[in-house]
Amino acid sequence: MNFDFSDDAKALREQARRFLDERATTKVARTQMAADSPYDTMLWTQVVELGWTAARVPEAMGGLGLGGDEACVLAEEIGRSLAPVPFMSTLLATEALVLVGTEEQQTRWLGGFAEGALIGCVGWGEGDAASPARAGAKVTGDRITGIKVPVPDLMAADVALVSAQGPDGVQLYVIDLSDPGVTREAADTIDLVRRHGRLTLTNAPCAPLGTPDTYHEWLDRAAILTSFEALGTASAAMAMAIGYAKERTAFGQKIGRYQGVKHKCADMYIKLELARAHALHGAWAMQDGAAELRQAAAAARVASLDALAYCAEENLQIHGGTGFTWDSDCQFYYRRNRAIVAALGSKTWWSDRLVRALERRNALAA
Amino acid sequence: MDFNDTPQEAEYRTKVRAWIDANIGEFRDVPDTMDRADFVARSKRWQTKKYEAGFTGITWPKAFGGQGLGPMNQIVFNQEESRFHAPTELFSIGLGMCIPTVFSHGSQALIDRYVAKALSGEEVWCQLFSEPVAGSDLAGIRTKAVKDGDDWVIDGQKVWTTNAHLSDFGIIVCRTDPSKPKHKGLTMFIVDMHAPGVEARPLKQMSGGSDFNEVFFTGVRVADSHRVGAEGDGWKVALTTLMNERLAVGGKPRHAPGYATLLDMAKRVQRDDGAAIEAADVRQRIAATYIADEGIKLTQMRALSALSKGEMPGPESSIAKVVVAKTMQDMAAFALDLSESGGFVTGAETDPDVARLQGSYLWSAGLRIAGGTDEILRNIIAERVLGLPGDLRPDKDLPFNAAA
């Protein structure tokens, strides 16, 4: 049995962590809050040079052709560092194109992702659209009309993959953001570091990417990748809480000595390790194309959102008044939690999807 | 990543499976009607068979009568054995906790006398640690052992002792020097459970059953040769036992209801606005139960994976019991809520699933305490895994007999 990442993936994780610890501190996130550019272009150039955007791109398209394991560890480290670069967006777009893109679509976009000439993003949200399974945006022939908001990294991107109602149901479509009929503007969100946008499509050209079924297969993969991102962010929030609990004194002793504080930290660890177990299961199911992929992906998503919300909220609580100031880094995790929820749907929606997968499996077993 | 056996594991599994299939016979199930004497005799017969075939003490050093194999061999054996309901419980404490303590800290004479007979199933063991005044704060025990010539004389009371009434021997931690601080004045002994002055009384639990005992010691004589470890080293010796206990108490009880039971029940139960399974709160709860139960199973897979590679499992294994016990309680309470007043009525007409959930609800209250309370386990995670400072313990360095 080997229920763990490969040695190669672990080595990549160490390399990524060292690089980001040095280069993508929370100071970088703070600077980004006030920046004009939608992302840190210098840092992005370095990320591209390290080959991270090429990792999942097939070798024939100019990429490295690495497996899902490598994508998962990179997502976790990006999540830990809060690095203000469009990495997750480009990775999720890459995953969809690799999964079901036509040769023409892959050739058009993937090589550009690998060498950093192009940036991708994905968007399902429509303001108050209630779930990733539904869409108000509508496709007629090869034209699309609708509004997608919030779309992460939209203002940085060259191509957007969006969900829309097609002739066979809701699925992904490829939008070249330089086409006529496409307008975009910045959209303010709770997360002040990761920029989002509003994409207005007015009879804009679009091309189907896969089918409604493959849209759901992509959602599974995206759920696993974002669960690793969430794990990384949650781990950083937990580390910050523990660091403070060891150093802050109240009533004559370190606050980490009080059970009211230390038990919160223990609960952070418990939720994180449960989430990590499910995320690893998801990574395995993704790599093996296992029958339980849907259930593993939904469980990874639910468990990681649960861990992230708890770690982000209780980290701030443990910091007390200091944590509620603008100058504290607690807000980055507290706000990023909402961005990661918004990126792919809430715990409620994914819990429902998990139970549907369990019902289906039980029906098959009966 | 893969969940398959290595070639060595597969080879061992084939060998184990063939042996179990050929020998399981009468041991494949435990009939409900079996009385205690039959249960003990049968448990011993199965243990003896395993012993003779070389499937006991799988990970123990050969010098102590073990097979000298790795932890994965033990796990493979357990997995194969658990395809049946073979009677193994009687020996889990002795072989899981007591005997490893004996061969880690006991004299060669004790090892020679006791290890083989425990392995072969001839002698049954229990662990005598907790007391009415010392549970979470185990080092506060008061049962005393006083030196008298070459013997020690033990007086006091132990509690929560599994199988004391069925045991031949026990390991007992006693206070031998009350003038020392609490952790320093303890010593471990082997006590003969049939000796004069030992009385085991079943302890009735709030759940109704009697799975444990209170054990009273009145002037019980133990030879100094039956001391395990040095005088005053009892705490260090006890920690060896407890490390093994937390591993043993870690998982969900084998036949306890889980998310699948909740799912089935939610399909049958009708609420005012339709089947319960359609309700969002019910689906959230099923998902939460799945996340916890399967999360622990997968965490155990991570530990197995480390063992399979010859590495030590990571600290994440420490989350198992604290998650399992509370999940069991919450899930059972929710399921009883779902069945409304029907979940409250007990007896022969109660639906079997509901009856199991009622049992689970009562038992989980004990599981949250046994082998380390939820609170102690959170302290352990916070202090040993996360490195937070320990609780203040004002009595730690005071002489035991001077502390409050």
From TrEMBL, chain A:
<feature type="domain" description="Acyl-CoA dehydrogenase/oxidase C-terminal">
    <location>
        <begin position="219"/>
        <end position="346"/>
    </location>
</feature>
<dbReference type="GO" id="GO:0003995">
    <property type="term" value="F:acyl-CoA dehydrogenase activity"/>
</dbReference>
<dbReference type="InterPro" id="IPR009075">
    <property type="entry name" value="AcylCo_DH/oxidase_C"/>
</dbReference>
<keyword id="KW-0285">Flavoprotein</keyword>
<dbReference type="InterPro" id="IPR013786">
    <property type="entry name" value="AcylCoA_DH/ox_N"/>
</dbReference>
<dbReference type="Pfam" id="PF00441">
    <property type="entry name" value="Acyl-CoA_dh_1"/>
</dbReference>
<dbReference type="InterPro" id="IPR009100">
    <property type="entry name" value="AcylCoA_DH/oxidase_NM_dom_sf"/>
</dbReference>
<feature type="domain" description="Acyl-CoA dehydrogenase/oxidase N-terminal">
    <location>
        <begin position="6"/>
        <end position="116"/>
    </location>
</feature>
<comment type="similarity">
    <text>Belongs to the acyl-CoA dehydrogenase family.</text>
</comment>
<dbReference type="GO" id="GO:0050660">
    <property type="term" value="F:flavin adenine dinucleotide binding"/>
</dbReference>
<dbReference type="InterPro" id="IPR046373">
    <property type="entry name" value="Acyl-CoA_Oxase/DH_mid-dom_sf"/>
</dbReference>
<dbReference type="InterPro" id="IPR037069">
    <property type="entry name" value="AcylCoA_DH/ox_N_sf"/>
</dbReference>
<protein>
    <submittedName>
        <fullName>Acyl-CoA dehydrogenase</fullName>
    </submittedName>
</protein>
<dbReference type="Pfam" id="PF02771">
    <property type="entry name" value="Acyl-CoA_dh_N"/>
</dbReference>
<keyword id="KW-0274">FAD</keyword>
<dbReference type="InterPro" id="IPR036250">
    <property type="entry name" value="AcylCo_DH-like_C"/>
</dbReference>
<keyword id="KW-0560">Oxidoreductase</keyword>
Automatic annotation (TrEMBL), chain B:
<dbReference type="Pfam" id="PF02770">
    <property type="entry name" value="Acyl-CoA_dh_M"/>
</dbReference>
<dbReference type="Pfam" id="PF02771">
    <property type="entry name" value="Acyl-CoA_dh_N"/>
</dbReference>
<dbReference type="GO" id="GO:0050660">
    <property type="term" value="F:flavin adenine dinucleotide binding"/>
</dbReference>
<dbReference type="InterPro" id="IPR013786">
    <property type="entry name" value="AcylCoA_DH/ox_N"/>
</dbReference>
<dbReference type="InterPro" id="IPR046373">
    <property type="entry name" value="Acyl-CoA_Oxase/DH_mid-dom_sf"/>
</dbReference>
<protein>
    <submittedName>
        <fullName>Acyl-CoA dehydrogenase</fullName>
    </submittedName>
</protein>
<keyword id="KW-0560">Oxidoreductase</keyword>
<dbReference type="Pfam" id="PF00441">
    <property type="entry name" value="Acyl-CoA_dh_1"/>
</dbReference>
<dbReference type="InterPro" id="IPR009100">
    <property type="entry name" value="AcylCoA_DH/oxidase_NM_dom_sf"/>
</dbReference>
<feature type="domain" description="Acyl-CoA dehydrogenase/oxidase N-terminal">
    <location>
        <begin position="6"/>
        <end position="122"/>
    </location>
</feature>
<dbReference type="InterPro" id="IPR006091">
    <property type="entry name" value="Acyl-CoA_Oxase/DH_mid-dom"/>
</dbReference>
<feature type="domain" description="Acyl-CoA dehydrogenase/oxidase C-terminal">
    <location>
        <begin position="232"/>
        <end position="386"/>
    </location>
</feature>
<keyword id="KW-0285">Flavoprotein</keyword>
<comment type="similarity">
    <text>Belongs to the acyl-CoA dehydrogenase family.</text>
</comment>
<dbReference type="InterPro" id="IPR036250">
    <property type="entry name" value="AcylCo_DH-like_C"/>
</dbReference>
<feature type="domain" description="Acyl-CoA oxidase/dehydrogenase middle">
    <location>
        <begin position="126"/>
        <end position="218"/>
    </location>
</feature>
<dbReference type="InterPro" id="IPR052161">
    <property type="entry name" value="Mycobact_Acyl-CoA_DH"/>
</dbReference>
<dbReference type="GO" id="GO:0005886">
    <property type="term" value="C:plasma membrane"/>
</dbReference>
<keyword id="KW-0274">FAD</keyword>
<dbReference type="InterPro" id="IPR037069">
    <property type="entry name" value="AcylCoA_DH/ox_N_sf"/>
</dbReference>
<dbReference type="InterPro" id="IPR009075">
    <property type="entry name" value="AcylCo_DH/oxidase_C"/>
</dbReference>
<dbReference type="GO" id="GO:0016627">
    <property type="term" value="F:oxidoreductase activity, acting on the CH-CH group of donors"/>
</dbReference>
